[in-house]
Specification:
Elements (H helix, E strand, L loop, with lengths): L4 H13 L21 E5 L2 E4 L4 E4 L14 H12 L9 H13 L5 E5 L2 H16 L3 E5 L16 H5 L10 H5 L1 E4 L4 H10 L4 E6 L15 H12 L2 E5 L11 H6 L5 E4 L10 E5 L1 H4 L18 H16 L3 H22 L5 E5 L2 E5 L8 H6 L2 H13 L2 E2 L8 E2 L6 H14 L2
Parallel strand pairs: 3-13, 5-6, 5-7, 7-8, 8-9
Antiparallel strand pairs: 1-2, 2-3, 4-10, 9-10, 11-12, 12-14
Helix pairs in contact: 2-11, 3-11, 7-8, 12-15, 14-15
Bound molecules: ligand KE4.
The site of ligand KE4 has 21 residues, from helix 4 and helix 5.
Length: 427
């Protein structure tokens, strides 16, 4: 049993001054029970907790750390930038350099606006979609998560699903009325909404690979079907690539699957751990954003020197390694093969699902294709598995409704240790 006295002490202090003792709900271990580990440091693929316990980390800050913890180019870029000032509230050259890189790497993006989080990026993108189309309805998918803006906290994924509050209190009926849900990978349910709301849908927003109900890849034809239906109806297609952007390919899921949306939202990897979000797309749409156009959106720290320095270091590292995504996919395939083998050996029903370096293990009777399948998976078995793996030195996402992440810092040895730990945890 790992010693966690210091985490216990810190958590008892934290809960006195912060709701649930955390600054983001999924960190509180509520879905798996027990006390969250307080992390002292990270390096490469590992984190060390406040009691000195070391773990192979697959949370990786929920996606940003494509090159692992304390990635030297990011650390030195941020340190260097900070010496010249942390924020000016005025235009800087780094913002141009980062925007130019994003435009050059992401197929759908002709113009981009930097913000401070994924939530800000997606809430701004749908405001733009509503302004550009003059329509009000946003169609999302049950179990997908697009940040905590009111419009999205209706049958949302991630922490909202974990705590069984898919539709959060505090979201007004008026707001909720402007959001519709369909089932992921089920174009029939999308057609139904389009039929019921003909000419009223401003946009369809989708995680092209759903990473907030575990990990659910798009089925063949699904993204293409959304592209066609939105184009035919005059609605916009928004790819929420906050998690998949720069993670699955240089141009994200839209490059991997060859479907180009009208607007794309980004976050996580761009900042390499610094708070960065972005939204962008067709120039004729983005030109409606203030001050060029009338659609207001602003942010004191948007594009600040530290975030843009980190972003340039991250995207620069991606550009320097042409076979990065092949390497990440090979590592993911090794993990997938190993865990799938363990499930078979132990005769345990489950589905290890993966796209590139994003994955999750469902204790389900079959493949998980949409929220209802994910919700039916065995959460109690996941809870036990999570804690056994933690004791064995592997830190998985503390929820069955989250994706795990490999990084370029993970090695084949790390993956093999993880597979061995899973064999032990499932014995
Ligand atoms: P943030 O506001 O948390 O930066 O981004 C919101 C968001 C938007 N879109 C997608 C596809 C996302 O995955 C997220 C955030 N993801 C969660 C992890 N499931 C963040 C972790 C957390 O809430 O602490």
């Amino acid at each position: 049993m790992k010693r966690i006295e210091r985490s216990l002490t810190l958590f008892s202090r934290a809960v006195r001054v912060m709701p649930g003792g955390v600054n983001s709900p999924v960190r509180a271990f509520k879905a798996v029970g027990g006390t969250p580990l307080f992390i002292r440091s990270g390096r490469g693929a590992r984190v060390t907790d406040e009691d000195g316990g070391e773990y192979i980390d697959y949370v990786m800050s929920w996606g940003p750390l494509l090159f692992g913890h304390a990635y030297p180019p990011v650390v030195s870029a941020v340190r260097e930038a900070a010496l010249s000032g942390t924020s000016f509230g005025a235009p800087t050259e780094r913002e141009i350099l980062l925007a130019e890189k994003i435009v050059s790497m992401v197929p759908s993006i002709e113009k981009v606006r930097l913000v401070n989080s994924g939530t800000e990026a997606v809430m701004s993108a749908i405001r733009l979609a509503r302004a550009a189309t003059g329509r009000r309805i946003v169609l999302k998918f049950e179990g997908c998560y697009h940040g905590h803006a009111d419009s999205f906290l209706i049958k949302a994924g991630s922490g909202a699903a974990t705590f069984g509050e898919p539709s959060s209190p505090g979201v007004t009926p008026g707001t909720a009325a402007d959001t519709r849900n369909a089932d992921l990978n089920d174009l029939g349910t999308v057609k139904e909404v389009f039929k019921a709301c003909r000419g009223e849908i401003a946009c369809v927003v989708v995680e092209p690979v759903a990473g907030n109900m575990g990990l659910v890849p798009p089925e063949p034809g699904f993204l293409e079907g959304l592209r066609e239906m939105t184009a035919n109806d005059g609605a916009l297609l928004v790819f929420d690539e906050v998690m998949t952007g720069f993670r699955l390919a240089r141009g994200g899921a839209q490059e991997l699957f060859g479907v180009v949306p009208d607007l794309t939202t980004l976050g996580k990897v761009i900042g390499g751990g610094l708070p960065v979000g972005a939204y962008g797309g067709r120039a004729d749409l983005m030109e409606r954003i203030s001050p060029e156009g009338p659609v207001y959106q602003a942010g004191t720290l948007s594009g600040n020197p530290l975030a843009t320095a980190a972003g340039l270091a991250m995207l620069g590292a991606i550009e320097k390694e042409p076979d990065l995504y092949t390497r990440l996919d090979r590592l993911g395939a090794r993990l997938e093969a190993g865990i799938t083998r363990v499930l078979a050996e132990r005769k345990i029903p489950g589905s290890f699902q993966r796209v590139g370096s994003m994955f999750c293990l469902y204790f389900s009777r079959g493949r998980v294709r949409r929220w209802a399948d994910a919700a039916a998976a065995d959460r109690e078995r996941f809870r036990k598995f999570f804690h056994r793996m933690l004791e064995l030195g592997v830190y998985l996402a503390p929820s069955p409704f989250e994706a795990g992440f490999l990084s370029a810092a993970h090695t084949e040895a790390d993956v093999d240790l993880t597979i061995d730990a899973a064999r032990e945890a499932l014995s």
